[in-house]
Amino acid sequence: MNRFLINLKLPLLAILLFFLFQVVASFSVVLIQAVVNGRSLLDSFVANVLDVSTMGIVSVLANVLIAVSCLFLFRRNRYTEKISLPPPAPLPQSLLAFVACIAATIALDLLSELMALPNIVEDQMIAMCRNPWGILAIAIGAPLGEEVMFRWGIMGHMLRRHSGVALSVIVSSLLFGVAHMNPAQVFFAAAMGVMLGILYYRSGSLLLPLLLHALNNSLACVQVWMLGDRIKEFSLVETIGGNVMAWYAIGLLLMLSISILWWYVENGKRKTDER
Questions:
Q1: Residue 266: other Cβ atoms inside 10 A
Q2: For residues 126 and 221, what is the distance between their CA atoms, to the nearest angstrom?
Q3: Residue 218 above 80 pLDDT?
C-alpha cells in the first residue's frame, strides 16, 4: 500500500499541473479580452465564452505546455528498473482493437445519453466546434496534451514502478475521468481511458490512442456542423428507435468490443510469458 501511494506522487503532481494550466489558460482569456477590448476583468470574465478564437488559441498553447511539462516530469532517465512488456501487437490485431474501441464509444455515447447527466460546458463546446481555433483545440490540442499526460506519463510511470498493468490502466483512466470535471463527461472519459490505455499498452505506441482520441473529439465537431441549431435537440437514442433499442445496442456493442479487447490483452500476456 505504501509503495502504491509513493507511486502516485508524480501522477498527482501531474494532475495538479494540469488543473493549474487550465486555470491559467482561463485567466489568460479574460486578461486578453480586458486588454484588447478595454473592459474590466469582471466584464471580460462574464463575456469570455463569446471570445471563442482566443479560447481556442490559449487552449492549444496550454495543451502543448501540458505535453512538454509531462515529457520533463516523467522523463525516462529517472527510471532505473526495466519493465517486462509484451512485444507490440501486429498491426491487424491493433486495428481490430481500434474498431472495437469505436464500437464501445458508440455504446458509451448511448449510455451517457440515457444517464442524462448535466452537461455544464455544452454551450462552450458548441461554440468551440464552430470556430477554427476551437476545432484545433478540441480535435488536436486536447488529444495531444491528454494522451502524453495520462497514457505516456501517468500510465507509463506506474508501469515502470511495477504497479501492474490493470492498476496502471485503471488509475490513469480514473484520473483522466476526474480531470474532465463535467458530470456528463466524467464517466465517459474514465471508460474511454481504459480503452486508450489498452491500445497504448498493446500497440506499444501513442499513435492509436491519439488517433482514437482525436477521432472521438472530431466527431463531436462534425455533429455540430451537420445539425447546426438542432444540436441540442438531437438524440442518438431516439434516432435508433428509443430506449429499448438503445439498451439492446449497448449490450451488443459492449459484448463485442469487450470480447475483442479481452482477447487483445490476453494475447499480449501469452507473448510476455513466452519471452
A1: 10
A2: 8
A3: yes
| Sequence-distant contacts of 253-262: CB under 8 A, at least 24 apart | 253/103, 253/104, 253/106, 253/107, 254/104, 254/107, 256/100, 256/103, 257/100, 257/101, 257/103, 257/104, 257/107, 258/104, 260/96, 260/97, 260/99, 260/100, 261/97, 261/100, 261/101, 261/104, 261/195, 261/198
Taking Cα atoms as reference points, which of 123, 134, 144, 257 lies closest to residue 198? 257
Q: How far is CA 240 from CA 165, 216, 230, 244, 246, in A?
A: 36, 19, 17, 10, 7
Residue 274's φ and ψ, nearest 5 degrees, are -75, -20
At 125 the three-state DSSP class reads helix
In contact, 62 and 21? CB cutoff 8 Å: yes
Each domain of the chain, given as residue ranges in start order, spans: 2-274
Going 106 to 112 to 214 to 48, the CA torsion angle's sign is positive
CA nearest 95: which of 250, 202, 191? 202
pTM: 0.92
**Are the CB atoms for 154 and 141 separated by under 8 Å?**
no
Looking at 19-23, 84-88, 226-230, 253-257, which range is the least confident one? 84-88
In terms of Cα–Cα distance, which of 140, 111, 113, 112 is closest to 221? Answer: 140
| Residue spans of alpha helices (H) in 80-149 | 91-115, 122-129, 132-136, 142-147
- Greater pLDDT, 23 or 100: 100
CB 198 within 8 A of CB 208: no
